[in-house]
Automatic annotation (TrEMBL):
Taxonomic superkingdom: Bacteria
Protein's name in the database: MarR-family regulatory protein
InterPro entries linked: HTH_MarR-typ, MarR/SlyA-like, WH-like_DNA-bd_sf, WH_DNA-bd_sf
Name of one Pfam family that matches: MarR_2
Stored PROSITE patterns: HTH_MARR_2 (PS50995)
Gene3D superfamilies in alphabetical order: Winged helix-like DNA-binding domain superfamily/Winged helix DNA-binding domain (1.10.10.10)
GO BP: any one term: response to stress
UniProt domain HTH marR-type: residue ranges: 1-147
Length: 158
């Protein structure tokens, strides 16, 4: 067995900095989202995915895969969102065993109302702190890591 390739000081700083930044940044943006709109992070993820599709619907299993959630976990969350009038569940026309998650008009109003404050939070806590070059580098880093992870999982796109 090969010896571990320990991180040097520079690599360790980058790794720990990334981990701490990710935790604190996610927590702050989620707090802002909830305070400004009453939506949770998963609510926002579901609503933004649905609002970005041309017919405002996704198959439950595809949405679960997109969110990296199990179908049962997403199904329970969708039930809570249905109670609040944000989404509905419809039988899939192509496959009666499956369900489509459909964005309601109330859900569309909720995402449209939340988006401006959400993007302002992202700007305030990340984007506006960085130079143009840093943003470009961050995008390049994300592309590289996502392509590697997609390749490891057998996906064709990051």
């Amino acid at each position: 067995m090969a010896d571990p390739r320990w991180l040097d000081e520079r690599e360790f700083r980058a790794w720990l900095g990334y981990r701490r930044m990710r935790l604190l940044l996610d927590a702050q943006i989620v707090r802002d989202l909830n305070r400004d709109s009453g939506l949770s992070d998963p609510d926002y993820d579901v609503l933004s995915a649905l609002s970005s599709s041309k017919d405002r619907r996704w198959r439950l299993n595809q949405l679960a895969a997109h969110m990296l959630w199990s179908k049962s976990r997403l199904s329970r969350h969708i039930s809570r969102m249905e109670e609040r009038g944000l989404v509905t569940r419809e039988e899939c026309a192509a496959d009666a065993r499956g369900a489509d998650i459909v964005l309601t008009d109330g859900g569309m109003r909720a995402i449209e109302a939340a988006a401006p404050d959400h993007v302002e939070s992202v700007r305030r806590h990340l984007i506006d702190l960085l130079t143009t070059e840093q943003i470009e580098t961050l995008g390049d880093i994300a592309d590289t890591v996502l392509a590697h992870l997609a390749e490891d999982q057998g996906d064709t796109a990051p």
